[in-house]
Specification:
Layout (H helix, E strand, L loop, with lengths): L1 E5 L2 E4 L4 E8 L7 E7 L6 E7 L4 E4 L7 E6 L4 E6 L8 E8 L14 E2 L3 E6 L1
Parallel strand pairs: 2-11
Antiparallel strand pairs: 1-3, 3-8, 4-5, 4-9, 5-6, 7-8, 9-10, 9-11
Length: about 120
């Protein structure tokens, strides 16, 4: 199982950034994929998840309306579009896969397979 994030970088506050998570080594449609982030000195936070089987999506309240999760099943890739970025969005962003259906904001403890992470830095 392999998950590879890309698209991180530095962006001005108020700007946008898109992340990608390319998955391989498992049956994509059988897993939910989540996006998470971890800022220095803070716990890992679940942001959003999607179930490719029915394209359902769930978000944590703090990023609703600014971040959008989507997937391309043909490419086994999940995306996170981030708009109106703030300084507090600065973190390492991870994607992860869970065999079970995601039915709410993702809990990091439930996810089995993780990518290596990509840094997102928002500057004022």
């Amino acid at each position: 199982v392999q998950l590879v994030e890309s698209g991180g970088g530095m962006v001005q506050a108020g700007g946008s950034l898109g992340l990608s998570c390319a998955a391989s080594g498992f049956t994509f449609e059988d897993y939910s994929i989540g996006w998470f982030r971890q800022a220095p000195g803070k716990e890992r936070e679940g942001l959003a998840c999607t179930n490719s089987g029915d394209d359902s999506t769930y978000y944590t309240q703090s990023i609703k309306g600014r971040f959008t999760i989507s997937s391309n099943d043909a490419k086994n890739t999940v995306y996170l579009q981030m708009n109106s970025l703030k300084s507090e969005d600065t973190a390492v962003y991870y994607c992860a896969a869970d065999y079970y259906y995601c039915s709410g904001p993702p809990d990091p403890a439930r996810f089995d397979y993780w990518g290596q992470g990509t840094q997102v830095t928002t500057v004022s």
